[in-house]
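[recover] target loaded
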């Protein structure tokens, strides 16, 4: 479910994983049509790092 959020609403994903500052920066990036793709890629990358941290017990 979070992967869908990362693609459709990248800024919102950062709020769900506990990174509100990154979420605000991502929202500013996402406000432009050109910036939406990098924002979505950043969100997917952040989600993968979040999942890795959870698996390793660091999250």
């Amino acid at each position: 479910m979070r992967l869908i959020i990362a693609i459709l609403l990248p800024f919102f994903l950062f709020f769900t994983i506990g990174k509100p500052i990154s979420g605000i920066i991502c929202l500013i990036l996402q406000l432009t049509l050109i910036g939406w793709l990098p924002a979505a890629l950043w969100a997917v990358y952040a989600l993968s790092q979040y999942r890795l941290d959870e698996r390793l017990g660091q999250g």
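[recover] notes: The helical segments are 2-8, 10-16, 20-30, 33-56.
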